[in-house]
Design goal:
It contains six helices and six strands. By secondary structure, the chain is an alpha+beta fold. Strands 1, 2, 3, 4, 5 and 6 form a six-stranded mixed sheet that branches. The longest helix is centred in the middle third of the chain and has 18 residues, at 86-103. It is globular, with a radius of gyration of 17 Å.
Length: 165
């Protein structure tokens, strides 16, 4: 019966060995861009791939603390991710960046919610992490009249949409 339901609903069967992630879209602002251009992205651009690959955790956390404090950065964190302290917030940011860069893998499944989670796109990660600091410029040059808001975040991964519900 289980396989019949999957077939009827046209839901692809996925391995239980894959990891599953939720990638937020800044309240839905970047949802269309992520889906239309087949990528996911994460903020905190001042922590580059070069820094992540060449600095230790403490140095990166100091950098996060310095930048987040100087920018009076709004931090979108779940309650269970932080103890409410400045140090807890820095650790939560570090963990999010670290997971996006080092733990998400090709073949993993990501759930991407739209505004109010009206739609949720299920996608497969198809590429390694990369940086694209010129994305917004390039996107606006290609399609200056687009109503899609291009995501300015540098750190990205390619995806392939499996299903939107």
């Amino acid at each position: 019966m289980k396989s019949n339901i999957l077939e009827i609903l046209k839901i692809p069967e996925v391995s239980t060995k894959r990891h599953y992630w939720i990638i937020r879209t800044n309240g839905g602002i970047y949802y269309q861009d992520f889906i239309l251009h087949e990528y996911i992205s994460i903020s905190w651009d001042y922590i580059t791939l070069n820094i992540l690959n060449n600095e230790n955790e403490d140095a990166i956390k100091r950098l996060i603390g310095m930048y987040a404090g100087n920018l009076n950065e709004e931090i979108d964190l779940d309650d269970e991710e932080t103890d409410g302290s400045s140090k807890g917030k820095v650790t939560a940011i570090y963990n999010k960046i670290h997971r996006f860069v080092f733990e998400i893998s090709r073949g993993d499944i990501v759930l991407i919610p739209s505004s109010n989670s009206d739609f949720i796109t299920i996608a497969e990660v198809t590429g390694d992490v990369y940086e694209n600091p010129n994305y917004v410029e390039t996107r606006l040059l290609k399609d200056p009249d687009s109503e899609t808001v291009p995501c300015p975040y540098y750190k990205r991964r390619k995806i392939r949409t499996l299903k939107t519900i």
